[in-house]
Design goal:
The chain is of the alpha+beta class. It folds into three domains: 2-45; 70-171, Alpha-Beta Plaits, CATH 3.30.70; 205-240, no CATH class. It contains six helices and five strands, in the order H-E-H-E-H-E-E-E-H-H-H. The strands form two sheets. The chain has a three-stranded antiparallel beta sheet with strand order 2-3-5, covered by helices on one side. A two-stranded antiparallel ribbon has the order 1-4. Helix 5 packs across helix 6 (225-234).
Length: 240
């Protein structure tokens, strides 16, 4: 009989002990913990108060240099394809083509002064495949591809995870491709003439002689700076 009541007593003490912790936490719930970053010095100095935050109106700040959703600044992208080659899961798809000389001014330059030479027809990132390693951001020469602190971008449709950063519409891309094809067709005769000229020089052994003469002249100018100065004075456009 004593063991029966002893069991009831231990059960009641266990329940009351658990309820005591719950009641104490409930009593302190009038104070709210501030949403701080784990790198904040006071992060572990808030032992009391509510732990749950009112998401999404409240959110814990992400630490600096977080690797979350990718973003590409197309205005600074030169379509070099280095990020796509660095991606281990091939979640980046890039399509580009050369611009004609008269379109280079329209393409413009990047924020760091790099000249653009390629039209960026397609730049897609499939975030459903991304492993958030950040390898694609390191080789980017213009630093236009970055990992943002945005971590909540859930979707009901898987296709919405593909982000498009291309700058050309389908109609404009077709127009620019047709213009490039026409330009290359017009340039074929000129390139053929240049190739024929080089072949003729090679056949008559003139090309090696010209290269040898140029190499000898460069060595002479290197060892005799006064001759270099004389050539520069006689030929304003002469460069070493």
């Amino acid at each position: 009989m004593s063991s029966y009541f002893g069991t009831i007593k231990r059960g009641a003490e266990t329940v009351l002990g658990g309820l005591k912790i719950t009641i104490e936490h409930f009593a302190r719930a009038t104070k709210r913990r501030m949403p701080l970053s784990v790198q904040d010095d006071t992060y572990f100095k808030q032992p009391l108060g509510l732990v749950t935050i009112q998401y999404p109106s409240e959110a814990i700040p992400t630490p600096p240099f977080s690797r979350y959703r990718l973003h590409n600044d197309a205005a600074d992208c030169i379509a070099c394809d280095q990020c796509a080659r660095a991606c281990p899961v091939q979640c980046i798809t890039i399509k580009s083509f050369k611009a004609t000389p008269d379109d280079l001014e329209e393409l413009g330059t990047t924020s760091d002064g790099s000249k653009k030479k390629l039209w960026l027809e397609q730049f897609d990132i499939d975030m459903a495949k991304c492993m958030y390693c950040g390898y694609c951001t390191y080789p980017c020469p213009t630093e236009c591809l970055t990992m943002t602190p945005v971590y909540d971008f859930s979707e009901f449709d898987r296709s919405n995870f593909i982000y498009h950063f291309g700058v050309l519409t389908k109609a404009k891309a077709e127009e620019k491709r047709a213009k490039l094809a026409k330009y290359e067709e017009e340039e074929k005769p000129r390139k053929r003439r240049h190739l024929n000229l080089l072949w003729a020089l090679h056949e008559h052994h003139w090309l090696p002689k010209l290269l040898l003469q140029g190499q000898n002249l460069l060595q002479q100018l290197t060892h005799h700076p006064h001759q270099l100065m004389m050539h520069q004075s006689q030929c304003p456009n002469f460069h070493r």
